[in-house]
């Protein structure tokens, strides 16, 4: 289920988080679905259980999953549109804080989407 690249510059716990989020967005994981146990996911991928635990904790902090002690970790019932908005705000907030003006961001977004349209 998970394809982890141990040679990637992206930390493994982030790879796990990102893949779970993609599975949720694609409908592969639905609200109430149980995720693999920390031990199971770690063993299947030959990684440290603490790495899996860190990914699950971060997902829980952000409301994507919830943990029922001794039962497992489950996918939360989330509003994907709100989730996307939250992700965008997380990316844009540091830019705003650094003094970049709204129009500069809008111009950059226009450029990005024009470039992607030609691909």
Structure description:
This protein is mainly α. The protein is built from five helices and two strands. A two-stranded antiparallel ribbon has the order 1-2. It is elongated and about 50 Å long.
Please sum up the structure shown:
Helix content is 60%, strand content 7%. It is mostly helical and 119 residues long. A hairpin with a 3-residue loop joins strand 1 and strand 2.
Features:
119 residues; mainly alpha; two-stranded antiparallel ribbon; 5 helices
SSE map:
Blueprint: H1 12-26, H2 38-45, H3 49-61, E1 65-68, E2 72-75, H4 80-97, H5 102-118
Antiparallel strand pairs: 1-2
Helix pairs in contact: 1-3, 2-3
Total strands: the figure is: 2
The first-to-last residue Cα distance is: 30 Å
Q: How much of the polypeptide forms β-strand, as a percent range?
A: 5-15%
Residues in helices, as a percent range: 55-70%
Rg computed from alpha carbons, rounded to a whole number of angstroms? 17 Å
How much is the average pLDDT? 89
**How many DSSP helices?**
5
Gross morphology is elongated
Helix/strand order, N-terminal first: HHHEEHH
* Structural class estimated from helices and strands: mainly alpha
What's the main sheet like? Answer: 2 strands, antiparallel
């Amino acid at each position: 289920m998970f394809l982890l690249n141990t040679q990637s510059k992206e930390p493994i716990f982030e790879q796990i988080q990102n893949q779970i989020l993609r599975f949720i967005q694609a409908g592969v994981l639905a609200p109430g679905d149980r995720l693999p146990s920390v031990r199971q996911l770690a063993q299947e991928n030959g990684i440290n259980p603490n790495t899996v635990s860190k990914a699950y904790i971060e997902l829980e902090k952000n409301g994507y999953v919830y943990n029922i002690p001794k039962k497992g970790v489950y996918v939360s019932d989330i509003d994907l549109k709100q989730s996307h908005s939250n992700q965008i705000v997380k990316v844009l907030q540091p830019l705003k804080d650094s003094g970049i003006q709204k129009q500069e961001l809008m111009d950059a977004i226009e450029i990005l989407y024009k470039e992607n349209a030609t691909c």
